[in-house]
Design a protein that fits this description.
Elements (H helix, E strand, L loop, with lengths): L1 E5 L7 E4 L5 E6 L8 E9 L12 E10 L6 E4 L2 E4 H4 L1 E3 L5 E5 L5 E6 L4 E5 L6 E6 L14 E4 L7 H28 L3
Antiparallel strand pairs: 1-2, 1-13, 2-3, 3-4, 4-5, 5-6, 6-7, 8-9, 9-10, 10-11, 11-12, 12-13
């Protein structure tokens, strides 16, 4: 499995690194009091310099997510813009399943669970191909201070799609979690 560490649990403002600590993606969402917020996903650009001492990382904009509250949010990547409702459809009674077609023309499904999100093939196999893990204390297994996304090498060819859709569904999951906490706090006896 490929393990990608997140520098923050706030997926709209985090840095994603590989197991060697190399930054692969930078995700940022500037604060706005009013209006639409846009998350920008930057990816490391391969170093094509022959100079062994040139180690400055360069990044390019892989894509953006334009967040809307009352309308469909939008994905932008490679000069294409698509509404999230068209690209990644909600399924299930509570809308906790989000299905999309990957670049390999296979159907995939993100399941929004109580504390994590899980990506699997949306077919009879339901084979899990990615999972978010939260920080652990190390009581059972290795201690981890940060969240990490574990991705199967089988879908490494579509890592960029996985990252963009992961940011989207994890933000939705956090919104659901926050809303349910608010409702729970308002209940009085």
């Amino acid at each position: 499995m490929i393990s990608l560490a997140l520098s923050s649990e706030h997926v709209r403002n985090t840095v994603i690194t590989n197991e060697q600590g190399q930054i692969i993606y930078k995700i940022s969402t500037p604060f706005r009091l009013v209006g639409v917020r846009t998350t920008t996903i930057r990816k490391i650009k391969p170093n094509d310099s022959d100079d062994l001492y040139y180690t400055h990382d360069q990044f390019y904009v892989l894509g953006e997510i334009e967040w809307h509250k009352s309308a469909s949010s939008k994905f932008r990547s490679g000069g294409t813009e698509v509404e999230t409702n068209d690209f990644i459809q909600k399924r299930g009674l509570l809308g906790r399943k989000h299905v999309f077609i990957g670049p390999d023309k296979c159907s995939y499904r993100w399941d929004l669970k109580s504390k994590v999100v899980v990506l699997s093939r949306d077919d009879a196999s339901r084979m899990e191909v990615a999972r978010l893990h939260t920080a652990t204390l190390g009581i059972m297994g290795r201690k981890r201070k940060a969240m990490w996304l574990e991705v199967s090498p089988e879908v490494a060819h579509m890592m960029d799609t996985i990252i963009i859709t992961f940011i989207y569904v994890e933000k939705l999951r956090k919104d659901i979690e926050t809303a349910s906490r608010r409702v729970g706090n308002q209940v009085s006896c």
